[in-house]
Amino acid sequence: MAQAPTDPSSAEAADPEESSPNMIVYRKIEDIITRMQDDKTGGVPIRTVKSFLSKIPSVVTGADIVQWLMKNLSIEDQGEAIHLGSLIAAQGYVFPISDHVLTLKDDGTFYRFQAPYFWPSNCWEPENTDYAIYLCKRTMQNKARLELADYEAENLARLQRAFARKWEFIFMQAEAQVKIDRKKDKTERKILDSQERAFWDVHRPVPGCVNTTEMDIRKCRRMKNPQKVKKSVYGVTEESQPQSPVHVPSQPVRKTTKEDFRKQITFLNLQIDRHCLKMSKVAESLIAYTEQYVEYDPFITPAEPSNPWISDDAALWDIEMSKEPSQQRVKRWGFSMDEVLKDPVGRDQFLRFLESEFSSENLRFWLAVQDLKKQPLQDVTTRVEEIWQEFLAPGAQSAINLDSHSYEKTSQNVKDPGRYTYEDAQEHIYKLMKSDSYARFLRSNAYQDLLLAKKKVNN
Amino acid sequence: MCDQTFLAIVFGPCDKCSNEKPLRAVYIKSEQLSYCSLCVEMMATEGLHENETLASLKNEAESLKGKLEEERAKLHDVELHQVAERVEALGQFVMKTRRTLKGHGNKVLCMDWCKDKRRIVSSSQDGKVIVWDSFTTNKEHAVTMPCTWVMACAYAPSGCAIACGGLDNKCSVYPLTFDKNENMAAKKKSVAMHTNYLSACSFTNSDMQILTASGDGTCALWDVESGQLLQSFHGHGADVLCLDLAPSETGNTFVSGGCDKKAMVWDMRSGQCIQSFETHDSDINSVRYYPSGDAFASGSDDATCRLYDLRADREVAIYSKESIIFGASSVDFSLSGRLLFAGYNDYTINVWDVLKGSRVSILFGHENRVSTLRVSPDGTAFCSGSWDHTLRIWA
Q: Which residues belong to any copy of the DEP domain (chain A) (predicted)?
């Protein structure tokens, strides 16, 4: 019985592949499957069912599996349980005995559990030679239940063409397998045959079905040994396989050096000195933010006049494009200065208000520095000079008021111009605007009119 | 009278720094040298330095980690979901697929929204990058990359260009042209060069800079015009899989997540890591800032999503269920931050109540893994892309 590793880190030290994303899922499924088959702790009823002249060994109904999943994994919705069960089947851990399509139905359909030998966690990547042997073997046995499905017959034909030269070898292997199988007990054979078929349903799925063995290429590098000869299901040794192009060998793990530790220690000391907030304060802040913005969240408060995606009417977007901001939009500018600066209409209103007071140089400086950071590298030096001339040079047209310390620092920075030359100055001006200009803007007639005007219309 | 010993002071050139100073006798490997007092001091501390073994440094790091945990634990006075008990519960949600975008011939790996709230760019395993007007479902542009597995794509803030990359280890920018005679691929500009696959890319608030993340374990900031590297970010111990820029108007930070199970917050100016979080049990596939910028969520192969707050410097919530066993590939917040949408490798999308920690809804529809998920710029919908070759718009 497979056991899920209890300590991920120790398992990882022993075998790096245990921590690969696919393996994590396999181990969880194996845990579920194991519990499901454990009759001591309320597992599903696995029985031999009598059918016409024969017996169907070792089966469980889909309904029983769904019920077990709902009870033992705290699933409230039946649909969810069926979906999870179908995924477990698609991965190859449980299968319908009379269907190649690996899905779970919530009814009397019979299912069987896969043998651990065939579990996906064994990292099978069966070659076409194995598949050819399998299909060939099936044609040698005169049993109705082993007849090839249409797609399998097509696959066999294709493989016969591809392996024309070594078909004799494959045929011999198939014959050998048939001999081995004949020696087994009848009931055991029924079970093994179905498990073998289910294995191939995973690795050579029915056309149109999801191939669950497909991997995310970003995670492939953790394969244990990409260059090793892939093991054969039927014990066939082949000449060495060429390395699959998918397996880019992973970089050797760099050992932690003294320098790494020193950097870590510096970093940790910085973190220890950091001033952090208590959870209660943080929770209050997160809650306050969502409560403030909930009326703007179309998933929670339906958008007015309508959500374009639901009504197929783009009216909402047309309204937002117009220069007339809605009352709700204007209200948002009052939440923080960032909101005004973020919204082009808000920014425009803010600027106009300041211009009317002949105090717009701070905002224009801030906007110019934002613009500077958006420039391509080659234009930076010119822009830095332009900003200096307009806002900071002695006798500047739109002189901003910086304290002497910032001014000194900035004049030094200008000698080596870059995107962050004015970072310090910009921070100062931002703080100044927040406490001064922004507060005045919110109190201004211009803003209040916009905020209230629409309300009057609504009333 | 007591005996007094007088020390004879020798004055002369120091054997180390050559300055004329009072000298002291120093024995190094049984050789006698004359050092000035300053050099003696320096030698003493350097010597200590060299005596620091790998083991002693490791121990120091471990004990600091312990101390840090202790300090953080002192601030852990309550859980988020406990405080959130007083918040009104969310009603029932009816979220449906409102548009299905078909046209990719293979797995959809990434998508991004245009600022106009309706256009999107998507990329897939077969090398195709498509720009759609998802409101009408019309394809407006398409380009075929010279490589397969285009894992990253992004829309420029101006709406006039897109960026993409993947197994070619590069990030390329394509200007979008409406001239039918012009071949989009002709004006392609190679911007970023990594030494392994490109996993994520994002424009900053300008068309002129791109931030990239790569399987080579680094992130980098590039000047688009010149292709010059502006800043690189080293610190992840394995592939970096995702990144997200902080939403602030004034901020210069971003967060990244990687196969080393760490989420790291970076200062774009200095290239330094400001904060680091390591609580996931497996790869972090996706990171996204909470709309206020004070926190961020992550989605991981350990089948959980987590919320980390930057001011508390810790994990503040986990979103998980016993029945969710497949990895979360992609996460994003609704506009208010109340809802977290997460796409999973079990083909579903789970919607979480961020404050209360409970699952609000599960959305079925995709027929294979959900690989990418983004909420639209005005929050009216979100788009999911899947290995089933389609994209869906949900509202």
A: 40-115
